[in-house]
Design goal:
The structure is a homodimer. By secondary structure, the first copy, chain A, is an alpha/beta fold. Chain A has 5 domains: 158 residues, ATP-grasp fold, A domain (Dna Ligase, domain 1); 90 residues, Acyl-CoA Binding Protein (Up-down Bundle); 113 residues, 2-Layer Sandwich (D-amino Acid Aminotransferase, Chain A, domain 1), CATH 3.30.470; 135 residues, 3-Layer(bba) Sandwich (Glucose Oxidase, domain 1); 306 residues, TIM Barrel. Chain A is built from 38 helices and 32 strands. In chain A, strands 13-23-22-15-16-17-18-14 form an 8-stranded mixed sheet. In chain A, a hairpin with a 4-residue loop joins strand 19 and strand 20. In chain A, helix 6 runs antiparallel to helix 7. The longest helix of chain A has 25 residues. The interface between A and B is large, with 50 and 49 residues.
Chain lengths: 904, 904
């Protein structure tokens, strides 16, 4: 059994594909050696050793690897010419953990291992920088004490014993910053640190490099089974058995003097995706100096340096003097770096983010990884690499992070304008995009102001269907209450409208028409700006810019369509939404909610008349008024979606959502309908429910009031015939909501078929239509084999299915969801990311049962999850026919669907 | 293939065990012949013929059975000496359907088939009763027209064309009753009827007996696939393939004169179970005369007749003259009947309910079946039959209808008193028993009045946990709203207290302290009586009687325990309930709800203080006040259940149930706690939820406020140690409610174990305890394999599991449930009878998954279904360890569990 793999000087015993054995870090260090990149030499103790450590214990493992560790340290010494544990010519090393899957919660890094008093003296002399030597030493003692000897407090609010000592020393000296401590202070700190270790552990701090090394190795292996690591594995379904590797590597320093430097570099521009090598460095510095902001980092390339100086208003002379490029200061190293970054990109076929250190004129790469980038850069780089022949089409698709596309689909704030904007509140990023407008509090006002040509932002405690018209004309919506799936959030996403929800810190007063936030009282008409992608709210009007959606974006989308096996439909309640979605590539409507239509214009009156009706005849009379309006709605939808399927859901929400709750409106309604206020109040009270989510709604309405289903079916079929007559191609699908019992769908289907046949007879022509159901009640999934006898299609309503499978009310889950995610009880919000383990099990079961009855049954989902990538891939893995999502999520779903097809 | 089985004159080709082939009725008619009971001769066309009729069509079947039908009619003729289709010596027959499983919705019966004008004349002459002949004729035409020729309106509100004619004829004659029509009128009706048939069907009414017979046979087979029959089969999971048989039998008449009679008889007393043959008869009468109440029926036995006369205040002379027994009027027939009833009982080994007809001095049995009986009679008869050696122990258990035991467990109204009582309202029979009391509307008053020694009935719109103390002292509860599983109903059943819920017609005014019902306004203090077994409400005070629970009742229960494999536990929240349940045979507590305890006495104050607390410290301080109180509660439970398991559920309901909703109480609370009213109002508002059922409750509370779980665990463990110290045997089980995610139970279990260990350390001794969970969220069933890693036991909370699996809110389901049951969408209320198809699937899955992880995991249920027989049997079929139900349902569950064990 080979327990250790060495690397260094262009050779390595491991490879990139030995990730399971060497961990991600170890495999990658080996690979860089193999392609000739200069990497400090070292070795990797395998994950197999970790497994043995867990099963057989420490002694067995030491016995097994002792000789190999010594040999491997000699391997490092032979390449560097230094000696481990030798005060005259010391070799220091770093020790890092590295599992096959990146795993926070484990022991991470110990640097400068091998140091002691004598070594520190030697380092001070050799580097000519005693401060560096002693700072390294005291840092090592602290790091080793905290991490290896377990002195770091478990509770974050408790104080690290080493920090306590530093504070005391600084206080005695009367200084505030670490940098103000001199060499003597650092020496003193080291002594105090070691005393603290003795007091705490009862043992002297180890001065032998070998003792230090073994302690660090044990610490890595022990950390594999600490509570945080176990919890992380549980939450991420990582097996406990895979173990971690240990990487030991020679230390190199960028702060050894003026021929030393350190920096970070990107093989392409991470913001725009342009193929320009770029990066920053500092001479005589450590890695953390580059990012700490104490010194101003310089550009690696002269070209980039000049552009940078121009932006900063620095002239060429000053630039050359104060901020020369690496090309100018260390031309050989710079040329080598340019060559290496190209080699790494060509090898990994992706934009690389690299860390390097130059020690005494010699360049070392410490890390390379695929670089993080913006959505725009992601798209451009992928398509550029395709055109360069570096990657193929499938790889382009796999490279796209679907959610990042969102950045490309909504207006965004101008970066400069945003930098100077004042943030006044933060809520949930409920619906992406940027918007500025004048504050209004009521839907009526929003409409009036918008008619006057004003841009408005609706600010509400929460929204309800009555606010719909106001939301339609507003630039954005800000609410005090409600989560990512609150009414405001769901509706806004459907409209592609910017929304910040659940901003708990703002104080809304409808009475005074004010909202307090960021220490200021805003009145109706004051300007604010919302970033729905971040949840941030800004004072005043912040400038926005639009993003280009053609070019590479379109090319990526075309590739997705080429490889996908699943269609992407959209949830749309109006022809306008349908058109937007079609532009984004939607291939049908998977959910058209008819209830939103009932709030438009005067039709709410007829709706209310229907609800208040005391008998079937009066109800039918009121429904007759709604019929032509609904028919008109559906005609618009069918025309906008000509050639594609349009799935119309029958009335779903409980009736109480349609009746006025305040006495004034109730009085008005009573007068209009010629009934008493008492009667209205009685009806409104009788509609009240303890748990409306589980109440009289969905097909329960259609089954207790069949005349509603009749009217809606008539409107759909008549509209389909009318639009077909105009030469369009119509494909209506009628969807019955909230089915849980076989007879529910059977009876609804009977009504639909009977009504459709009646219309066909009247009109003397037919259209083909399909009948299906939402699977959104757990019981529906359990008896899907029966339901499929009647249903042509299933559309999984994952919002409600999640509510009932978990027993969580979307409206109330905010009371404990954040606590649950913080405590690690839930990995994430199941209303955002489909719970494949629980809810997914029901979906899978329903799909199987449905197909057992009807092999070609049409399957899709239309919950909020239809636009969430992991959920879309889950649907693809079940060979669904389509997912349906809000218009602005269509491109995201298209990519995710294609990725799902490639993964299967 | 034998298509027809004949019977008659003590011979039969069929047998009782040929039910599948001959249907229930046909098999039974054959059997009676075989044991020598005189039955009018006839024949049965098999279910196989029906199957052919469905698959091959009418012609094929006629071809197949034509000759056999003719032969079988000759068989009847040979035994009766009459001739079918012969006007001089006519043989009339009845035609009845009869499937292997009794099935309403099909064609039922056509009597007097074979009649026409000539036959009617003959009948009139032979019987000397022309009215009988012509009434039989016109009835036949109507029955045949309705049933065979399809003239019965499908819609129940439409008028039967024949009834229309009768009404017209009666109107012309100026009479009101059918009986007022004379022979000429009946002749006229027959003519009009036949005209209506011609008008309606386009064909003459068939005068040939053979045509009539074939028409009736077709009609039976056709009715197998009519809508109602199909729906009934669907709802009752009866296979479509089994088909129905057709029974053709010679007619006999009890109204041929004074040597003819008809009656019904019981082999034992159906009310008391006493072994006394009894029954009623009428001379010269038809079956329907006995039950119609126009004439007073006479007793069969002289002994019975004397007892009857005494009760009626009729002296022996008058009795003998007006109401002689059959023994006195037709001694030979009576003696024969006595002998036959004994033979039938000995044959069927059960009390028989018989119909007989005496035609011209000759006794015929038309039907025998196991007789309906009261709960008391059921128990007595079963035990008597066991002692008589007629049946064995297992049969005794199978014979008990579990729900009928309920009659034996609660006080009932005195029958005579009830007869004269005025019914003023009707609600749901929410909790059985009878109770009288004075009306009170508020819990406080109930307590005060009860302290004064008054009997009170609480009348409420609905009840809440705040009413608990009032309910405890009340005789019964009447509510305006809420179903069988409303708060009032569930709590009342738990207390074994009479409750009528959801009496929608009553009008309660808290303000006036009045309730309007039955046209009268009742004030506080007025007397009413409730029957919780029927849902009826009576004016005034109705006398009640208690029932004996020893003797045969105890004997039956002992038998149940001998054969059951599943234990019956009880749901009990107080030592008093626990003791009652133990007396009823409960072997443990399956659910002790700790929240009810928080309402008792002053402890609600500490509970509120805990909820209002702004931080952990204050919350812990309030919990510390609750600790000794809870510990005391648990001590009482452990003592009462010494030797048995006590399952204690941690806090479950949402906190808003504990805080006062009205400003006055809130002000009081604010003063007590020294906080502002605004703060109280803020907390109360923040606890409000849109769907509290799916909100912040169950273990979600324990996970966000771990200190609650700590306090409750400490109370349980300390109580267990204290009670163990006193010499009792304690078996605490700690039950975590509303688990849906693995980490929820893991974290709760960690808290419980940690707390328990702390207590053990403090006290220096240990008790063994178990940790388990309710499976009441669909997701919990889906991931039961994970949950079982932590849980020692699962208790299925079928109430909530039903709510979430169906998506029905128990509190709101009343809005559509009745409509659903009426329309046949649901077979019954899933909150009363466990939905084995949907919810049961989840239970089965969870049981399998749980056992896969932990083969010996302890399984039970504690929902309302734990006392419902079919649900208990379902649990038995899954080899559950226990079911838990309210104390008064324990005996029912014990029998059902034993029956389940015998069925497996």
């Amino acid at each position: 059994m080979k327990t250790i793999y060495t690397f260094g000087n262009g050779k390595a015993e491991g490879r990139a594909d030995m990730r399971d054995l060497l961990g991600g870090k170890g495999a990658n260090l080996a690979e860089m050696n193999l392609i000739g990149v200069p990497v400090p030499p070292g070795f990797t103790i395998t994950t197999d050793v970790c497994k043995l450590y867990v099963s057989k214990g420490r002694e067995a493992v030491v016995e097994l690897i002792k000789d190999d560790v010594v040999k491997s340290i000699h391997h490092i010494e032979s390449l560097t010419g230094n000696k481990f544990d030798d005060p005259d010519n010391p070799q220091l090393v770093s020790v890092r953990s590295g599992a096959p899957i990146s795993m926070p919660g484990m022991m991470d890094t110990v640097l400068n291992l091998g140091i002691n008093d004598a070594v520190a003296e030697t380092l001070a002399k050799k580097s000519g920088n005693p401060r560096f030597a002693w700072d390294s030493y005291r840092r090592f003692v602290q790091m080793y004490g905290d991490v290896v000897l377990g002195m770091k407090p478990q509770n974050k609010t408790d104080i690290d014993p080493f920090e306590e000592i530093i504070d005391k020393v600084k206080a005695e000296k009367g200084v505030k910053l670490d940098i103000e401590l001199d060499v003597d202070d650092l020496k003193k700190l080291t002594v105090l640190f070691k005393e603290a270790v003795k007091k705490n552990t009862g043992k002297e701090f180890p001065t032998s490099a070998w003792d230090q090394l073994w302690g660090a190795i044990y610490a890595v292996f022990d950390s594999w089974n600490n509570d945080r690591a176990i919890l992380y594995r549980q939450m991420n379904q990582i097996p406990d058995e895979i173990g971690t590797a240990v990487n030991v590597q020679a230390m190199v320093y960028g702060n050894m003097g003026n021929t030393s430097a350190t920096g970070v570099a990107f093989s392409r521009d991470a913001a725009t995706g342009e193929n320009i090598f770029n990066g920053e460095y500092l001479i005589n510095a450590q890695g953390e100096d580059v990012v700490s902001g104490v010194r101003t980092p310089q550009q690696i390339m002269t070209e980039g340096s000049r552009r940078w100086a121009e932006l900063q208003g620095i002239d060429e002379e000053e630039r050359k003097a104060k901020y020369p490029s690496l090309e100018e200061t260390m031309p050989e190293c710079a040329a080598q770096l340019v060559e290496i970054q190209q080699r790494l990109e060509n090898h990994y076929h992706d934009m690389q983010d690299m860390e390097f250190t130059i020690q005494n004129g010699k360049l070392w790469l410490l890390q390379t990884r695929n670089g993080k980038r913006t959505g725009a850069a992601m798209v451009k780089i992928a398509m550029d690499l395709l055109r360069e022949g570096q990657i193929d089409e499938k790889t382009v698709i796999k490279r796209i992070e679907p959610t990042k596309l969102d950045e490309l689909l909504h207006p965004v704030f101008d970066k400069a304008a945003l930098d100077s904007a004042r943030r006044v509140a933060k809520g949930l990023p409920a619906s992406p995009g940027a918007a500025s407008g004048q504050i209004v509090f009521f839907a009526d006002d929003a409409e009036k102001w918008a008619q006057d040509g004003k841009q408005v932002i609706m600010v509400r405690l929460e929204t309800s269907p009555e606010d719909l018209r106001g939301m339609t004309v507003a630039q954005g919506i800000l609410t005090n209450r409600g989560g990512m799936t609150s009414h405001a959030a769901v509706v806004a996403r459907g409209m592609g409208k910017c929304c910040v929800s659940g901003a708990g810190e703002i104080k809304v007063s409808y009475k005074n028409r004010t909202v307090e936030m960021g220490g200021k009282t805003y009145h109706e008409g004051d300007w604010i700006s919302l970033n729905g992608s971040t949840g941030k709210v800004y004072d005043g009007q912040v400038k926005t810019v639009d993003v280009d959606m053609s070019g590479d974006f379109k090319a990526v989308m075309d590739l997705a369509d080429k490889y996908t096996k699943m269609q992407v439909y959209t949830n749309a309640d109006s022809p306008r939404d349908a058109k937007v979605a079609r532009r984004f590539g939607a291939k049908g409507i998977g959910l058209c909610r008819t209830e939103h239509m009932f709030f438009e214009g005067d039709r709410i009156k007829a709706m209310r008349e229907m609800i208040i009706a005391e008998n079937v005849e009066r109800r039918k009379a009121a429904l007759a008024k709604l019929l032509p309006l609904q028919r008109g709605d559906f005609e618009g939808m069918f025309e906008a979606m000509s050639g594609y399927e349009v799935t119309i859901r029958l009335l779903d929400p409980p009736l109480h959502e349609f009746v006025p709750q305040d006495t004034a409106s109730q009085e008005e309604l009573a007068q209009e309908l010629g009934v008493t206020l008492d009667h209205i109040k009685h009806v409104v009270a009788s509609l009240k429910e303890v748990n409306p989510m589980l109440g009289h709604r969905g097909c329960r309405l259609g089954n207790t009031y069949p005349e509603i289903t009749e009217m809606q079916t008539r409107a759909i079929i008549e509209a389909a015939i009318n639009v077909q007559d105009k030469g369009f191609e119509v494909h209506p699908k009628i969807m019955i909501p909230l089915v849980g019992v076989y007879n529910e769908i059977k009876m609804q289907a009977d009504i639909i078929n009977r009504t459709a046949e009646a219309v066909f007879k009247e009109r003397g022509k037919r259209v083909s239509y399909k009948i299906g159901t939402m699977i959104e009640i757990p019981r529906a999934a359990l008896i899907a084999d029966q339901i499929a006898k009647v249903a042509d299609f299933f559309s999984f309503g994952t919002n409600d299915l999640t509510q009932m499978t978990f027993g969580y009310s979307r409206d109330d889950v905010g009371k404990f969801l954040n606590d649950y995610i913080k405590a690690g009880i839930l990995k994430n919000d199941p209303f955002q990311i489909l719970d494949q383990e629980g809810v997914g099990q029901l979906i899978k079961m329903a799909a199987q049962k449905g197909r057992a009855t009807k092999p070609n049954i049409n399957l899709g989902i239309c919950g909020e999850h239809g636009g969430e990538p992991s959920s879309v891939k889950f649907c693809a893995s079940l060979n669904f026919d389509y997912v349906s999502c809000s218009p602005y999520r269509v491109p995201i779903a298209r990519i995710a669907a294609a990725q799902g097809a490639l993964e299967n």
